[in-house]
Design brief:
CATH class of the largest domain: Alpha Beta
Helix content: 25-40%
CATH architecture of the largest domain: 2-Layer Sandwich
Number of domains: 2
Number of strands: 11
CATH topology of the largest domain: Ribosomal Protein S5, domain 2
Bound molecules: L-homoserine
Number of helices: 10
Distance between the termini: 14 Å
Radius of gyration: 19 Å
Strand content: 25-35%
Structural class: alpha+beta
Length: about 300
Amino acid sequence: MNEIKIFSPATVANVSCGFDVLGFCIDTIGDEMVIRKTKEKGIKITKIVGADLPFETEKNVASVSALALYNHAKPDCGFEIEIYKNIKPGSGIGSSSASAAGSVFAINELLGKPYNQTEITNFAMKGEAIASGCEHADNIAPALFGGFTLVKSTTPLKVLQLPTPKDLFVTIIHPQIEVKTSESRAILPKDIPLQNAITQWSNVGSLVHALHTEDYNLLSESLEDVVVEPYRSQLIPHFNSVKTEVIKAGALGAGISGSGPSIFALSKGKDTAEAVAEAMKNVYSKTEIEFNVYVSKINTQGMKVL
Ligand code: HSE
């Protein structure tokens, strides 16, 4: 095989209480990438459609991660990468991770899968680091593994795959404003009060238990973030109204998707997720801000070859 086309999915990181550790994968939004072997050695970005991103190998997250794998594998060929972006950079639904993980996933396939998912995740983190200023895997892991993931540690990297309750749907609103991950990380306090830490780790534990037991009520109670959301929500216009309205529409809970500005809500059943979409649209239709709304089942497969 000399060429491969893949679907690289969008993801929701943090899932409210699990800052930098929890994430899940989306079905209906994602980038496409074409990766091809070349006689000329090295990694080259040859096409980018849908976003204004750098072509320089050392500046694009897709080529930086690809290079990390390439320098390790030392193959007898090079690779060129075409990126078709559907996930807007700065949207909070894992745009940089889709690029960073997509290139390494595809090159690994073309090389006959010498690396396992954890090793690929490690290479992808090198690309993600140039977008956000630090290596974290809470978008990359769900994009590669599918479903819900928990990053137990990054050094050494250990990813836990969590079960996905079968009736769980996500609704996402993406207000068309850009929030840079590096900036929304910079506004976070370095220390947190002990009482907030207690609430937060109780929520993370409960959320993981809820996923294992398909306990939608417990899931609902656990979707609370007392550490990060109070700071970052200030960067997202009408965040509190959206949250209030989606809960009224039947959502189990809502929060900031990754570093924002997208807002996600989880629901039991597609009908409720659609009603939640209407509630989100109602809030933002009254503003001047353009937006997109998506409803998706949780994607348990992750990245796929097209
Ligand atoms: N956990 C990351 C953050 C996800 O919230 O900053 C965004 O890259």
